[in-house]
Amino acid sequence: xxxxxxxxxxxxxxxxxxxxxxxxxxxxxxxxxxxxxxxxxxxxxxxxxxxxxxxxxxxxxxxxxxxxxxxxxxxxxxxxxxxxxxxxxxxxxxxxxxxxxxxxxxxxxxxxxx
Amino acid sequence: xxxxxxxxxxxxxxxxxxxxxxxxxxxxxxxxxxxxxxxxxxxxxxxxxxxxxxxxxxxxxxxxxxxxxxxxxxxxxxxxxxxxxxxxxxxxxxxxxxxxxxxxxxxxxxxx
Lengths: 114, 112
Hints:
The complex is a heterodimer.
Chain A: E1 4-6, E2 9-13, E3 18-24, E4 31-37, E5 43-50, E6 55-58, E7 61-66, E8 71-76, E9 85-95, E10 99-104, E11 108-113
Chain B: E1 4-7, E2 10-13, E3 19-25, E4 31-38, E5 42-51, E6 54-57, E7 65-66, E8 76-78, E9 87-94, E10 102-103, E11 107-111
């Protein structure tokens, strides 16, 4: 079955880089995702990577994928106080015939200190 | 603006009183799904729909029903809510399977 693990907390200083790590178990994942949730808000899709890629860069965000180790990371360069939020890693897998399901980690609370 | 909307955003109700949470998307997406988010458990899929009149159970379907009569709408129905259905509910849609899912703002439901 699918399982996604990520550390629960990360604290950084403004201007530093943040790296949020995630491990997943299902080797048949097609896409892997990073979502951001600010307090009281919904889930915002930040970025995603296809499972046959190993890196994707999008402005301040860099996603690294090590498929062999089933390890995904999100690096935020020049972290700002507005980046404080919960970050969810998710893997997408085909399950139960036609379903495409996202399995989420429990989320990493990123706190950015001025 | 492309978006997924949910109503209501907040709801407090009592055990056994039927309720419906609506979800609508304006992106002509075929795939829609409902999740619930609980502390320490993350997000879990309740039901999904591949297209109009095509729905199926996710991981935690007990106590819920859905319908998909139109492509844009995917309501979540709780026929007889119980306190263990107190949660934050998210609707999501995507253009097809295997693609990125866009989430609504969430509905915080409290059942007393």
